[in-house]
Design brief:
Two copies of one chain form a homodimer. With 308 residues, the first copy, chain A, is α/β, with parallel strands linked by helices. Chain A is globular. The longest helix of chain A is centred in the C-terminal third of the chain and has 18 residues, at 261-278. Chain A has helices at residues 28-36, 54-61, 125-134, 147-152, 154-161, 171-178, 183-192, 241-254, 261-278, 285-289, 292-306; strands at residues 2-6, 10-16, 19-26, 41-48, 70-72, 78-83, 92-97, 117-120, 140-144, 166-170, 197-201, 207-211, 225-227. Chain A binds chain B through residues 17, 88, 181-185, 187, 202, 204-206, 208, 223-226, 228, 231-235, 262, 265-266, 269, 301, 303-308, and chain B through 17, 88, 181-185, 187, 202, 204-206, 208, 223-226, 228, 231-235, 262, 265-266, 269, 301, 303-308.
């Protein structure tokens, strides 16, 4: 089944202990779409500028991603400059040039209306809500957000959270959103705000899924599930790891018939696998190159890492 | 089979978001011994002062721990004062009164000579080495250390590391010891210094075991194994979590016939289970109270948390 993802398509300039790259293709929707493309059909709604060339579009279309929803606007694409020299787990933002993204008003092509799965990547919650309301018939809504929206646009964010089947955020965002420093209490407080299920990402340590009585429609509240992060010899560029996790997770969910607890757990492993690929090269390099067989091999490694 | 543990038996004065406690029984050897006592016989070599009363000794003997190796010296026991108000994952040390521990010269009772397993808790590596040389016939040596010894007593520490079958340290210590920030490369560099296997503790996220070709005597190098940390509603007092992990891990290992890869993985889960109990109450309160049935229940929770 098809996923519609709305979010940023951008250029990233990056510096990490492994080197530097200028203006490589990035953005939440890009990482998400590439990761999900290994499992299911993906359609992207976003906006780019005149610097988005056929070679960039090909990165997505080569993997079967539908780019008809990527609007071209006069000017330059969103550009982010960041460095991970202090700590590979935390980016220092050096520049954020919103450019055409500043006026982003998501337009959903008519042919995208039958998408069964909606992913609201990290953008203004007002836009997330607008897209959600234009897709009333989707079977499932998942999404992301960040500290800026949690702090400065909380009212709007709370409206989106009520629409979410699965919210994916990191530890700090869960703490900020809930006001709770304890991970389990934070998760319960966040789910009380709306999301039926919550995935909290722990960087290199993986991610934990928390469930509510509403997670699987059977009124049963299940205990948390942890997908480990794979130990890697080199983390070249952490940018997009979380979006790649989301793409792997949601792509696998959308490729299956029904969301069961077992499927949710397996999807967590696919998320972790795609996140582990993402960080092995700069930008989307590694996500462009992997194969489904390589993905399955990594699932086996994750199983070996975590199973008695 | 029997474990001989050498390390601190102390009093801790603690402040955490959950409250304050003055002079509760603590110390690495105490936490280790209580956690291991659920699985095997434990003998403690340490030193205490005149403030160590029968009620304190009973905490250990009630769990079958052999305390004949705890020497009584004139003066006061080791006392540590710490707070976790800033961050539950990192203690702020407010006072360290070594007292009788400053002159600690481990004396091993003759009847302890047949102990098959040796655990060298975090003390001066010179003392660790001295104890090790007095126990030439043990089947296995495991141990711990800390940043102080890594930085200021590196030469001595390196001698102990060459004696270790399993070293247990945390992420920061592994980085400091190896000079590597990447977890996997750090682990390989640490094992190159001597330990056949390495367990790196990640606080609330659990711990990862790394293996070398020497881990199981068959020349085969296995991939890492991660035991997750159990999400808990309240972490009351993190003091001793790492020592309790070590006690659960090593106690389970010592209770079995032979160290196989499968046993090592299961022992990691017992370590995580005992660590999770330790932090639920102040000091050793929770470790005194649990039952083997409760331990097994927690193993089941860890399995549910991590298994597809």
């Amino acid at each position: 089944m098809s996923i519609l993802v709305v979010g940023s398509v951008a250029f990233d300039s990056l510096e990490t202990p492994s080197g530097k790259r200028e203006r490589v293709l990035g953005g939440a929707a890009t990482h998400f779409a590439l990761a999900a493309s290994y499992f299911t059909k993906v359609r992207v709604v976003g906006v780019v500028g005149e610097d988005f060339l056929p070679e960039h579009e090909n990165v997505l279309t080569n993997k079967g991603v539908d780019t008809k929803g990527i609007e071209r606007a006069p000017g330059k694409s969103f550009h982010w400059r960041g460095a991970y020299l202090r700590d590979l787990n935390e980016a220092d933002t050096l520049a954020t040039d919103l450019n055409v993204f500043a006026e982003f008003a998501p337009k959903i092509p008519a042919e995208y209306a039958d998408s069964e799965y909606l992913f609201l990547a990290n953008i203004d919650p007002v836009l997330q809500l607008r897209v959600r309301s234009q897709m009333p018939k989707v079977a499932m809504v998942a999404g992301d957000t960040m500290n800026y929206w949690i702090n400065a646009h909380r009212e709007n964010l709370l409206k989106v959270l009520r629409e979410m089947d699965v919210l994916l955020i990191n530890d700090k965002e869960a703490q900020m959103l809930s006001g709770e420093s304890n991970g389990l209490r934070a998760a319960e407080a966040v789910m009380a705000l709306g999301p039926k299920s919550l995935i909290v990402k722990h960087g290199e340590y993986g991610a934990t899924a928390y469930f509510s009585e509403r997670s699987f429609g059977d009124g049963v509240k299940r205990r948390p599930f942890r997908a480990p992060g794979l130990p890697l010899h080199e983390v070249v560029d952490p940018t997009g790891a979380g979006d790649s996790f989301a793409g792997g997770f949601y792509g696998f969910v959308a490729s299956q018939q029904q969301l069961t607890p077992e499927l949710f757990r397996r999807a967590m492993f696919y998320g972790s696998a795609m996140g582990s690929f993402a960080v092995e090269r700069f930008g989307t390099e590694r996500l462009q190159q992997t194969t489904r067989a390589e993905v399955e091999e990594r699932i086996e490694h994750l199983r070996e890492l975590s199973h008695l």
